[in-house]
Amino acid sequence: MKSITFFDLEIDPYNHRIVDIGSIKSNGETFHATSIGDFSDFLAKTEYICGHNIFKHDLKYIKIPGVNKLNKIDTLYFSPLLFPAQPYHNLVKDDKLDPENYNNPLNDSIKAKNLFYDEINAFKQLDEELKQIYYLLLNGIEEFSAFFQYIDYSVEFLNVVTLIRRQFNGEVCDEADFEYFVYQYPVELAYCLALIHARSRYSITPRWVLKNYPVVENIMHLLRGNPCLAGCPYCRRSLDIHVALKRYFNFDSYRKFANEALQENAVKAAVADKSILAIFPTGGGKSLTFQVPALMAGENMKALTVVISPLQSLMKDQVDNLEKSGITDAVTINGLLDPIERAKSIERVENGSACLLYISPESLRSKTIERLLLGRGITRFVIDEAHCFSVWGQDFRPDYMYIADFIKLIQEKKQLEEPIPISCFTATAKQKVIEDIRGYFKDRLAVELELFATNTSRTNLHYVVYNKGSEEEKYDMLRDLIESKDCPVIVYTSRTHRATMLAEQLREDGFDARAYHGKMDVKQKKENQDAFMAGDVRIIVATSAFGMGVDKKDVGMVIHYEISDSLENYVQEAGRAGRDENIKADCYVLFDERDLDKHFTLLNQTRLNQKEIQQIWKAIKNLTKFRSKISNSALEIARKAGWDDGLNEIETRVKSAIAALEEVGYVKRGQNMPRVFADSILARNAEEAITKIRNSSRFDEKQKEYATRIIKKLFSTRSRRHANGEIAESRVDYIFDHLGIAREDVIHMINLMREERILADAKDLTAFIKKGEKCNRSLSILETYCKIENYLLSVLEEEGNTYNLKELNEGIAGGQGKSVTPDKIKTVINFWDIQKWLNRKRYDNSNYSKNHIVLALKQPKKKIEEWLEKRQQLSKFILEYIYEKNKKIILESPNNEVLIEFSVLELKEAYEKQQSLFKTKVELTDVENALFYLSRVEAIKIEGGFLVIYNKLTIERLEENNSKQYTVSDYGKLDQFYKNKTEQIHIVGEYAKKMISGYKEALQFVDDYFRLNHTSFLTKYFSSSRQKELTRNITPTKFQQLFGELSTEQLKIIKDNKSKYIVVAAGPGSGKTRVLVHKLASLLLMEDVKHEQLLMLTFSRAAATEFKKRLIKLIGNAASFVEIKTFHSFCFDLLGFVGDLEKSKNIVRVATEKIKSREVELCKITKTVLVIDEAQDMNSDEFALVEALMDFNEEMRVIAVGDDDQNIYGFRDADSKYLKELITRKGATKYELIENYRSKNNLVLFSNEFVGRIRDRLKKESIVAVQPDNGEIRITYYTNTDNLTVPMVEVIHNTELAGTTCVLTKKNEDAAQIAGLLLRKGLRAKLVQSNDRFNLYDLQEIRYFVEQFYSEFHTPKISDDKWKYAKLELQKKYGKSSMIEIVNRLIKDFEETNKSGRYKSDLDLFIRESKFEDFLEQDSETIFVSTMHKAKGREFDNIFLHLENFSLTSDEEKRLLYVAMTRAKRNLYIHSNKPYWNHVDMKTIQKTENCNAYGVPDELCLHLGHKDVWLDFFRDKQRYIDGLMSGNELVFERETCFTVQKKPVLKFSMNFGEKLRALQQKGYMLKTVKVNFIVYWRCDENKEIKIILPELVLRKLL
What we know:
7-stranded parallel β-sheet, 7-stranded mixed β-sheet, elongated
């Protein structure tokens, strides 16, 4: 007997040294040591050495003299030859022995010995001719020769080609070049022949064979996948596409379009190994066109077809539809799968039971997918919905552009000489898209796509467009259309909220409608889709998410409530109607041109602009300072770039930016690097987990705090995601970002929690269990399926037979009940097929109907019976266990399906603990198999698992130059992509207009759009001027609205998108606000600026509100998201504070310091445009803030608008020099707005004369009046009095006034006296009061309104119902308050500027920043009285100036008076006791001298502040004050004020008491006391009380 020794080595992976040796001889003698010398002695007298994978591994490390002379046998190389069929040899797992005990070389050498003798026995049992073939092919090759020598097998003088042709006659193509294969690739040929001889449907070539012998794939294709011209018997039977169509789908012929055999030709081309691009009409059967070749290749060549599809639901539908046809060869791997199903899908691809794999483009970045595909022979890549390359590839789905790189990677790693064929399918593609797709694959892979297209149009669709200009008209027409025809209807909208609202509205009106959009709960979305598809619901209101892959034959009407954003999308969406060619369907559009503006707005906000890519490039440069390769999550990169997490689709945008950088060679993105830390939480709840953390010695005190916050976040994420139907995935990067804990600390805490057994890998799952009225309905479902399985097992045989599904159904049901159906029987058969328990034949015999099926048991019946009993027993236990564990929750739930939680490990342990005499031992895989089965039969619906994961992108920086910027040229391709999208919106709008005016012309327009090349189409339908319109991302109407009525100088400012810094010196009445609003609109709509990149700073909340309201009116609700804030509110927000008067003093300075030290969230200061209103009012702190923002954002544009002539806030250190510094230091472009639209001609000339007295002015040109006519200017000079109040009131009383009127004074006291005297004269007068001494938030009426929201403490958002309730309660309680008008206007302003949603924090800030004067509502009947400072920014028809002892010695006083006089639109009346205008000589001025002497007014009005009242007096008077409101009368007696019910509520302070006595001595007596304000005052640190600030009227006794 020949001596043979089996051995195995363990090698240190780092230093490659032998650390252990195991060996056994054929006589049973063993060796287990580390000494090479001893092992050399052990090998003495051995003729043969044998092991598993020793040629590639072990022999490289043995340095023993003479070992090379020994005969070497490697069991690895014979395994695929001798055990080619599934199940493979139980000791072999790919290129390794299946390990029981890792790192035990003796054990592995024993396994190698057993395998070797099994291989000898297997060889001996082969057909003699096959033995000869293997010998003749392999004997001369080192890896095989010793085996034949050992078993003494040899043959001579035989022609191996003849043997092969005879042995494999009818199983391979007769025309195959065996002579070439035998000579060039004998090993590869042998492996192919072994696999063919196995005659096993699902057996595949092992991964290691594909890796080491890559030509195997090509040889298998040439043997069994390449139809010969001669038409040999094999090719006629196995490669005939008509036979295949009948076999797999039971169709007799392929579909034709306009007598073109498009489908058949595309299938032929695919089987002939061509790469193709097929343009099929919607409903044209494109899926079948790639499924037939895929199924053929799977069966014939054991090869895999990879289908790259854009939508998860589309993938699932295709797999489900194939299963309905009895085809179980397809799987999908996507995010919709639960962990069990995902694992099963991966397993089925690995073991060869799947020949069709559906994945998304994003999956190509996964190492798992790469590994899977490298382990299978790939016959073709199919790109479904291939138009997504052009439509989505650049920004929305950047991984579409990675497809070619991935295919190239697979080809290179497989070492394939020929490229893998590619099929692209789409229903809608114009010439440009076709060119894009073909060009992409030609440029990237040198693959030419053969085009298969048809010009067929859908003749059963009728198109109508209605022009509807209002929402009401649209909805009425929608209802009329739905009522006009009884058929299934799809209503398309462009926004998710619109879909929800329309569906609700239709339901309220009695229509059976459901919504469908991408932001819906996954479960609800599926229920709505299923109900519509099944015919249970007639109307589905959907966004474009309901489109691709939706195939409901009887849809008779598609209504576009808003037109699509491109003609491609419109045609595809409209094409959902009339999929049954025998019905006539209608396609309606309810067109409103403003809907196009919504598309433009969305495009502007979602497009990735150059500056954003530059920000990501800068972030990557910072991250790669010390190494060229990095692994960071998309969120980390976004944060480094200063992006806000409020940014829509933040991760997609990061990946798109990286793709753009990759396109120009700056970086190279690799595969994703996900790291899973845990997939379960072992603690039952957060409280239990926190207790374990607190009691653990593993954590120090700081770590306990961190771990507690992290575990709370994990529980919160899990429950929230489960509630929303999302994957319960806790991203480590989101955890450290949201909690503000360093990444390393988060990872360390998670690892410590694993050690503490708080987190683990027990596979947490959630599932819906079905409940009946008084039973476990899931268990009833299981019992039905068990009944089906047990019956099938009793009737099916191993030799196979033909069965009728109806007869099987009768046999199982026994004529009782309806729980068993043919569909359920099919479900079981499909499941058994997936489990490889069955052999199933296709539709080979046309004598049988679809109800007939040929089945044979693939495994021994006894074995299946054992497996079945084990699985059924375990499945029943699982359902009973989870039902009992969650019984209370299930019974109390109002739903028929109840979500419950469990883990796989928990189920295993519970099963093992049960006291059953008949229980069998189970592994985790058994539990997973039972769950997979329960899910397949829909006894439960597994929703998903739980993961703590850190998902990193790998990026290699290629561009080493650190100063390299991402340029306009680099952005060119992406820019063109967005220009194309802009053009598409215009074109679909043009189609709608044409359809309104002419049906045939519109259809021709569509036909030409898809048929003609781009230039020809534009030339035919758009003149050169119209083509210019197509480049603008607004409609012509909106363009006219934005720019049509602006002056030349205003237009220059709007159109200047080149100047980095702009200063606009805007004179009074020059339309400054309008210019700024239009500039903001232009930035957002025309200049590619996102709302989150734009910051506007103002000096008052009123200005911010006014800008927001005007912007909303101009561009719609998109303006709601623009950040328009005061300097103070921006700084408060930056630092995370709530603003108030006390804190605001140094807030700007503190925020500036934080910006400089980078101690703020970068996303809040990362801006591309800064707009400053009233820039002349900046002080040193505010200008320092602006400079800090400019320093941080090097490329940021700054637009500062102001008028140095109106700088009147010197008392707060405001100085227009900072506005000037933007010009002198920063080189800003200066524009002057000098056209005054407000005032009459002579008023402008008069103010020009006056403003000339101010030194160092910024404007060089004089203000020019747009109005040519004059108003009235009357100057009254008082020569004999210092008291102008009385005569001025008399003049106002005697003047006939038309329009709005305001009296302006310098001091508050004067304003109050004038208002009081005007009222006494019987005129309607209103004092513009000030709340300088308190915050509006402290006003009683406002505080009451805000308090209504305290009950909703759990949510930051204010619901609509709660908002309405609060307004109602406010009116009930304070409807008679004199402050109610102001409060109501405040509420109205907040509503108008927060249309997208109302948040408590926004309301709080809005109130705190507001002032009384912000809510001044002008009317022509009321004379307003105000100080000059408060009047800034306002305008009135008539202005009266009260200039009593007014000094003009300083420039600031001159500017204040200039502000006052320029408020006048028509008439200006000046009352002064100083001769400032004596020298002015203008014909249009009336001058009057008044020489009379006037005394003091006989009535005084005083508004008291905090210092005027005894604050402590209010402490114990709260119960009396609670019954009061602003405007209530008080009674004054003996220095105390009482309510009318004689309750004391107010006393004056000592200081005011003295002032009052002084007035009394002058003859003034207190006439009335009213409640002016009731405000909250903080009397100590933790307590607030209400105080009264009264209004006093004193009358002078005669």
